């Protein structure tokens, strides 16, 4: 149950709004939820600055990913979450070779300091700290077909959740700080030439809103997600190639669902869809995903823990 | 207990975020932060060096300067002092930047201009492509599209003009022998290394005058940017105390006059017609098909006309048209030959599970869209090597001119071969070959990267023999990168290197007799 912030690039909108850490749900103490998600994302139009265009030399750019994810309840109020995706990129037209490989490890601590029920409504507040780091030496400077941006990131997200009966609303905002990356060339142009292989990556702010139905068995929600690159990015100029430190903004809409089996409450299925409605220097991608999760209760299965 | 854990969790989260956020904001130090130029040899006899277009160093008259014992000269020194009393941080930055050397910085500025304009036109609605127009540079697409041949020619013209201008400068410095302001007034502060050469005309003034005029021609949409740089260079000389204003003003006038000669040549060198027309594009295809070979086809979608098919006819600084033809490589292996099949299979193999090292080499040398092109890459390599040598401005200009002219000749000879043989890229014959860099929109044989690299390597190895092995390793890697990227066959690369080395030899032959060695 996890997501990777970042990676909208032209290419890879990632596990973006799969059932994720940015929901108002916590694993109970000693429970470990583990699962896998398959995601397919594609676009045939992208924004070059604010100019929406297609590129016949790329055709449809697609990203297939399988992510392994886990969420462990350190306590009822503190969860540790990880994810590791394997990604393959492809362009349906032109000559450019797609890439494949393991992308970035993401680790998140999710903490719920406050949960209060007043009347029929429950309010809760969360803080999430995430760290991501590339797990393989892929090239970030191969957009739009690179596996990712290769930047180590840290992010801090604050989130509030409100539930009344089976209906809920969650809103959250994060600041994502990105570390410089190293590319394979030793000079590159942003607005000026830079004579170095290091690239200063712009930070980003992510705002996420979700609302819908939530019970023990079923979750169905819609989401609005807005990713805004902060200062330091720049636009792709007319008919130019994209670059890792481009400004990449995306406003996404989507739906998520999660179904937990009645007879096997440890097992659940997730699935969803989202699309980029407005963007800047990113692909206008459609994303589908589906996955399966299983909850293991270490308390039950390992009585030694009790001693 | 629980509370404690929670507090700890909360502070840990915040601490990790802040620590990481702090450690992320490392400033980047770039390689072009150079020390002030302090030549080991002033090359005081450079006024006699052989020029490219000037018939004599004094072909353009420079008037005699006012004497240093006049009140007018004193007022010029007072101007310097008044700037220095209120020097700003920004002015200090300008001095730091330009004091590394005018030829160095103008080459660097040119690389920026090339990179900014190295973008192929975006197609029209009907799938045709508009062409950039020098007569209407702000239209879509902007003029120029500084692709490798355009860039090679731009670097060469500016460098050749700078070199002729520096020879004239050295000639006039000796002729008028006007003392530098800090020699006349010992109380004057000098913020950069003092030169023992006479200061009239200012080499920076001449460089700015000649370069600005040529860049206005070559990058007309960038004139405001170029003027801004020239203003800074002028200010740098005055504030630093190296020149009085009349040194600079005279230099600019001389530089502008010299530029006219190069601008006139550029207008008649054939580059303007190099784009060809539909009749020529069709003819290239039919005449190749008539030989029984597979003609080159654009792999761009929509198909794009071939890049500058007549660039091979552009007038070289060092080669006659006969020399271009005589240097032309033998025909490539027939697309029906066994040798060709072998070479195609080799390229396909490079594309199957490429090593990370190979991908890195491809990216390092790609120099494609949005970059300063291969001639710019070698220009940057040369600049960093020359900095270590502490050349005088005139020697900087001479060495850059030899390099950049050799690379323009590489462009001419390579484009001559490409459009003589018009042979297809690997992915055209075998669409299952996927590439690791963009497929350039012109025929395969011979490789442009290899030709540029061969020419650059020969010239640079002649100029700095101690680094020859280093340059040879680079030319080889640059050439190989095109096979690793799956866009060239081995013959393209090997014959390209040979051609480049041959063409570079013409520049070396000139270097031996130009009076500088």
UniProtKB/TrEMBL annotation, chain A:
Recorded superkingdom: Bacteria
Keywords: Signal
Signal peptide: 1-18
SUPFAM superfamilies attached to this UniProt entry: Porins (SSF56935)
The protein's name in its UniProt record: Transporter
Organism the protein comes from: Flavobacterium ranwuense
UniProtKB/TrEMBL annotation, chain B:
Sections of the chain in a coiled coil: none
Signal sequence, start to end: 1-21
Pfam families, per the entry: PAP2
Keywords: Signal
SUPFAM superfamilies: Acid phosphatase/Vanadium-dependent haloperoxidase
Domain Phosphatidic acid phosphatase type 2/haloperoxidase: 407-501
Gene3D superfamilies in UniProt: Vanadium-containing Chloroperoxidase, domain 2
PANTHER family for the chain: PEROXIDASE-RELATED, PHOSPHATIDIC ACID PHOSPHATASE TYPE 2_HALOPEROXIDASE DOMAIN-CONTAINING PROTEIN
Protein name: Phosphatase PAP2 family protein
Organism: Flavobacterium ranwuense
């Amino acid at each position: 149950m996890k997501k990777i912030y970042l990676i909208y690039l032209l290419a890879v909108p990632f596990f973006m709004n799969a059932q994720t850490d940015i929901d108002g749900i916590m694993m109970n103490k000693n429970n470990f939820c583990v699962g896998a998600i398959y995601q397919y994302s594609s676009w045939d139009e992208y924004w070059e600055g604010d100019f929406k265009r297609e590129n016949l030399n790329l055709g449809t750019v697609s990203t297939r990913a399988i992510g392994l994810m886990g969420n462990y309840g350190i306590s009822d109020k503190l969860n540790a979450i990880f994810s590791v995706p394997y990604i393959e990129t492809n362009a349906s037209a032109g000559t450019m070779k797609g890439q494949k490989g393991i992308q970035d490890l993401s680790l998140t601590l999710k903490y719920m300091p406050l949960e209060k029920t007043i009347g029929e409504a429950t309010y809760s507040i969360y803080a999430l700290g995430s760290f991501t780091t590339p797990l393989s030496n892929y090239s970030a400077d191969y957009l739009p077909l690179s596996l990712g941006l290769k930047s180590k990131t840290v992010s801090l997200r604050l989130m509030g959740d409100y539930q009344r009966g089976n209906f809920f609303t969650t809103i959250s905002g994060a600041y994502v700080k990105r570390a410089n990356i190293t590319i394979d060339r030793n000079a590159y142009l942003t607005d000026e030439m830079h004579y170095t292989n290091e690239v200063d990556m712009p930070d980003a702010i992510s705002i996420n809103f979700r609302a819908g139905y939530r019970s023990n068995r079923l979750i169905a929600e819609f989401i609005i997600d807005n990713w805004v690159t902060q200062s330091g990015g720049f636009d792709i100029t007319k008919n130019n190639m994209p670059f890792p430190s481009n400004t990449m903004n995306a406003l996404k809409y989507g739906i998520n669902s999660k179904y937990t089996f009645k007879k096997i409450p440890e097992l659940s299925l997730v699935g969803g869809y989202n699309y980029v409605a407005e963007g800047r220097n990113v692909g206008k991608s459609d994303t589908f995903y589906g996955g399966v999760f299983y909850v293991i209760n270490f308390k039950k299965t390992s009585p030694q823990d009790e001693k | 207990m629980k509370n404690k854990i929670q507090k700890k969790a909360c502070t840990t989260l915040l601490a990790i975020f802040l620590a990481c956020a702090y450690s992320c904001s490392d400033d980047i130090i770039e390689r072009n932060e150079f020390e002030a130029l302090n030549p080991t040899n002033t090359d005081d006899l450079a006024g006699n060096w052989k020029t490219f277009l000037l018939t004599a160093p004094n072909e353009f008259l420079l008037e005699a300067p006012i004497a240093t014992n006049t009140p007018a000269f004193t007022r010029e020194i007072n101007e310097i002092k008044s700037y220095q009393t209120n020097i700003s941080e920004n002015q200090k930055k300008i001095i730091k930047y330009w004091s590394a050397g005018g030829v160095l910085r103008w080459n660097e500025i040119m690389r920026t201009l090339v990179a900014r304009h190295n973008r192929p036109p975006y197609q029209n609605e009907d799938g045709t492509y508009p062409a950039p127009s020098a007569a209407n540079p702000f239209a879509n697409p902007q003029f120029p599209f500084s692709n490798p041949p355009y860039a090679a020619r731009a670097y060469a013209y500016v460098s050749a003009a700078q070199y002729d201008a520096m020879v004239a400068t050295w000639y006039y410095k000796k002729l008028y022998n006007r003392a530098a302001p800090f020699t006349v007034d010992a109380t004057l502060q000098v913020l950069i290394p003092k030169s023992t050469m006479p200061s009239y005309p200012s080499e920076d003034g001449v460089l700015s005058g000649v370069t600005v005029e040529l860049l206005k021609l070559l990058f007309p949409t960038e004139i405001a940017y170029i003027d801004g740089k020239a203003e800074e260079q002028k200010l740098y000389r005055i504030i630093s105390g190296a020149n009085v204003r009349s040194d600079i003003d005279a230099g600019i006038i001389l530089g502008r006059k010299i530029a006219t000669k190069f601008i006139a040549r550029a207008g008649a060198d054939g580059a303007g017609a190099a784009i060809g027309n539909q009749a020529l594009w069709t003819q290239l295809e039919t005449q190749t098909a008539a030989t029984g070979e597979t003609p080159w086809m654009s792999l761009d979608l929509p198909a794009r006309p071939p890049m500058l098919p007549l660039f091979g006819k552009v007038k070289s600084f060092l080669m006659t048209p006969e020399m271009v033809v005589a240097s032309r490589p033998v025909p490539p292996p027939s697309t029906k030959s066994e040798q060709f099949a072998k070479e195609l299979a080799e390229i396909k193999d490079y594309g199957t599970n490429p090593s990370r090292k190979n991908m890195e080499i491809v990216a390092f040398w790609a120099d494609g869209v949005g970059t300063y092109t291969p001639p710019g890459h070698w220009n940057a390599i040369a600049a960093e090597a020359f900095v270590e040598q502490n050349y005088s401005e005139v020697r900087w200009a001479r060495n850059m001119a030899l390099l950049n002219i050799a690379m323009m000749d590489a462009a001419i000879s390579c484009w001559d071969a490409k459009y003589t043989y018009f042979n297809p890229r690997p992915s055209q014959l075998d669409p299952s070959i996927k590439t690791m860099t963009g497929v350039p929109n012109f025929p395969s044989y011979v490789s442009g990267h290899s030709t540029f690299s061969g020419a650059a390597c020969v010239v640079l190895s002649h100029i700095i023999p101690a680094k020859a092995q280093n340059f040879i390793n680079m030319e080889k890697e640059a050439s190989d990168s095109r096979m690793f990227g799956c866009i060239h066959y081995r013959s393209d690369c090997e014959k390209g290197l040979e051609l480049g080395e041959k063409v570079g030899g013409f520049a070396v032959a000139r270097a031996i007799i130009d009076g500088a060695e």
